[in-house]
Amino acid sequence: MPTMPMPEKGISRDDLMARLHALKAHDADWRRGRMFGLIYQAGGDLEEVIDEVYRLFLFENGLSPMAFPSLLQMENEFVAMAAGLMGGGPEAAGCMTAGGTESIFMAIKAAREWARSERPDIVDPEMVVPVTVHPAWNKAAHYLGLKIVLTPVDEDFRADVEAMREAVTDRTIIVGGTAVTYPHGMIDPIDRIGELARERNLWLHVDACLGGYILAFLRRLGLDLPPFDFAVPGVKSLSVDIHKYGFIPKGASTVLYRNETLRRHQFFVYTDWPGGVYATPSLSGARPGGPIAAAWSVFHFLGEEGFLKLARTARDATVRLMDGIRAIPELYVLGRPPATVFAFGSDQVNIFEVGARMKERGWHLDFQHRPASLHMTVSPAHGAVVEPFLEDIREAVRAVSGVKPENLSQEAAMYGMMGGLPDRTMARDFALSFLTDLYRLK
Ligand SMILES: *Cc1c(COP(=O)(O)O)cnc(C)c1O
Questions:
Q1: What is the best residue among 209, 282, 377 to mutate for testing ligand 1's pocket, by most ligand atoms within 8 Å of CB?
Q2: Beta partners for residue 279, in sequence order
Q3: CB 145 within 8 A of CB 152
Q4: Phi and psi of 259, rounded to 5°?
Q5: What is the pLDDT of residues 28-83, one digit of tens each?
Q6: Which of 214, 241, 368, 378 to mutate to test the pocket of ligand 1 (most atoms within 8 A of CB)?
Q7: How far apart are CA 184 and CA 150, in angstroms?
Q8: Which of 85, 160, 179, 210 could make an S-S bridge to 228, C-beta 3.0–4.6 Å?
Q9: Is the pLDDT score of 317 beyond 90?
Q10: C-alpha 367: how far from chain center
């Protein structure tokens, strides 16, 4: 890679901002509600409020709660509110982290330390989780030296608990489930996984990164949802992202434990550093003040009433979108998604080509394989675009109906190829080369 010289002299603030605006002009235009995933938009004046909150805490560092007691207080209050929402009792405890990946890492690390003290005979620990868990679990297993055993899901894309039971061995220390799963928006049968965990003395972590902060409110609205949180006796920890259905900018998640004894396994302490005793709750050292202040603020600014309203809006939009999609004969919705995330596919048209045509019309949908489908994460702000979306998808399906395989767009062809490669080491090499090329100055 060619190195790039740093500018010798600075430029004016006006020039700088002009350069940044020019760069940003090519970014996805999420404000029009045409993006599903990546950004969770509440709408209203929340964005302006969070902007002000961030500026107030922009440079403060959560690494030192002594220097910045406001951050400590906001984190403790936020975590206590979160634990209450997730069915935790007065013993519940938790921390804020930088995102779902860090929350899952922390819970799995805590579980590993717990197993080292509870079950010291196990030297090569394993975890048993359904294939639909987020790749952050695979990443955590890879980094933390655990074997991950993946089990199938049922026809409704929920964990097959009998298959999990069969996969548990004397080396298993962790079982997991998700509410709601990223690929299909489903809730795993957490109560039954909890029974398994209790029978075999396993740590059950529930990944509610995506669903937690919307399910809590959908449940209060009276939706019939299966239990997924501390109400299930076997659940020891939960991860819940604030930067998803908490509607604040990236860099904010929660990891919760049934009690402080379990949380102790998460902490890291080093007492012999020449710089002094070093003790941190989570992976990060320095921690930005903005996400902590934003998390605290969004709960106070919207309150339960505001969150209930947003949850209702997002769920209503989801139901209208799913109904509209089901009404198109060529399309079907995968499973019966109970919240605000779902995927749809087709046995009759190339669904990736439909996605590519939607992109031409300005709609950003994630492409998924197994089965091939398009993915939607519905935000309250999408309530306003349901009709234009459905009009465009009807047209896209019509346009794609007659397309021959050789006339597929490049994007559709590439996704079809990647999903279909029988040799996964080829897909892996392809992805590694893609990353190598992406992160290189051109
Ligand atoms: C988003 C997500 C994660 C990972 O969270 P990041 O914030 O991207 O690190 C984990 N699990 C589920 C179910 C998710 O949707």
A1: 209
A2: 269
A3: no
A4: -155, 170
A5: 888 888 999 899 999 899 999 999 999 999 999 999 999 999 999 999 999 999 99
A6: 241
A7: 17
A8: 179
A9: yes
A10: 16
- Containing 272, the helix (H) or strand (E) segment is none
What's residue 307's pLDDT? 98
In the block, which residue shows the tokens 């049922």?
A: 154
Dihedral sign of CA atoms 250, 254, 255, 260 in order: positive
Name the residue among 221, 239, 314, 303 with its Cα closest to residue 46: 303
| Residue with CA at minimum distance from ligand 1 atom 3 | 100
In the structure, which protein residues have their CB atom closer than 6 angstroms to any atom of ligand 1? 99-101, 104, 134, 136, 178, 182, 207, 209-210, 241, 253
* pLDDT per position as a tens digit, 105-122: 999 999 999 999 999 999
Only one residue has tokens 């940044």, namely 20
Using alpha carbons, list the distances in angstroms from residue 358 to 38, 328, 353, 354.
Answer: 17, 15, 9, 6
pLDDT in tens, 208-253: 999 999 999 999 999 999 999 999 999 999 999 999 999 999 999 9
